[in-house]
Design goal:
Helix content: 40-55%
Radius of gyration: 17 Å
Largest sheet: 8 strands, parallel, barrel
Structural class: alpha/beta
Bound molecules: 3-methyl-2-oxobutanoic acid
Strand content: 5-15%
Order of helices and strands: HEHEHHEHEHEHHEHEEHHH
Number of strands: 8
């Protein structure tokens, strides 16, 4: 595999080749995922939960995101490295730019922000200044307390229409990738078909252009509540490298996610 760029991801969508993404937080796992052919590595603010043991992602700060971005970049050869903008690090276009610049200087090649059309000015500001942006809609974990818990979004027609509209607005503002989390399969399919850019799903069914998992979920080592959309690839393989190879294979063949991982 050669170095993955936004152009490659767009071409993959156009050619119907599925994109595999996974979160990474350190150099060793980044290298393993990169070696096994993951196309996108996300330094997710999920690190607040899976590394720091918090109940949500809200306490993660910029210094932590920069640190983990540097670690992941050192282990990555080919995958596109995307870093999350943590809670309250992108309240204004200028603050967004200052913080995104820190992640890019740490080696990220794209930044991800959670939310809809209220981010369009910031997205335009970033893309004009050389920072590629990934959007994130559906269940956006930084808004967990607005949602009243980690709940599937877009189940009623009004909400579904709203998420669909926001996706188009974000694309028009300049995002080059979209993460769609915990929405019904039919909505994810509609959005993936309508957008020119690739859509990466998590709990969004098989019809998106790619899939992402939190690495701890892919290894089945998440303690407590295990979301329906995850799969323990380690259980089937007994080996971490083989587990990721199987994840990449099943995503590219379209056999993961199965019906048991999806929402209606
Ligand atoms: O923070 C994260 O890991 C994420 C993924 C779940 C998409 O945003």
């Amino acid at each position: 595999m050669s170095k993955i760029t936004t152009t490659n991801l767009l071409k993959m969508k156009q050619e119907g080749q599925r994109i595999t993404a996974i979160t990474a937080y350190d150099a060793t796992f980044a290298k393993l995922f990169d070696d096994e052919g993951a196309h996108v590595l996300l330094i997710g603010d999920s690190l607040g939960m899976v590394l720091q043991g918090c109940q949500d992602t809200l306490a993660v700060n910029m210094d932590e995101m920069v640190y983990h971005t540097r670690c992941v970049v050192r282990g990555t050869t080919n995958a596109l490295v995307v870093s999350d903008m943590p809670f309250m690090s992108y309240a204004t276009p200028e603050q967004t730019y200052q913080n995104a610049a820190r992640l890019m200087a740490a080696g990220a090649r794209m930044v991800k922000m959670e939310g809809g059309d209220w981010l369009c000015d910031s997205i335009r500001h970033l893309t004009r200044n050389g920072v590629p942006v990934c959007g994130h809609l559906g269940l956006t974990p930084q808004s967990v307390h607005v949602f009243g818990g980690f709940k599937v979004q877009g189940r009623d027609e009004f909400q579904a229409q709203e998420i669909y509209r926001q996706a188009l607005e974000l694309q028009a503002a300049g995002i080059q990738l979209l993460v769609l989390e915990c929405v019904p399969t039919s909505l994810a399919e509609r959005i993936s078909k309508a957008l020119r850019i690739p859509v990466i799903g998590i709990g969004a069914g098989p019809a998106t252009d790619g899939q992402i998992l939190v690495m701890h979920d892919a290894f089945g080592i998440t303690s407590g509540y295990v979301p329906k959309f995850t799969k323990n690839f380690l259980a089937e393989t007994g080996d971490m490298r083989a587990a990721i190879r199987l994840y990449v294979k099943q995503v590219s063949e379209g056999t993961f996610p199965g019906p048991e991982h999806c929402f209606n």
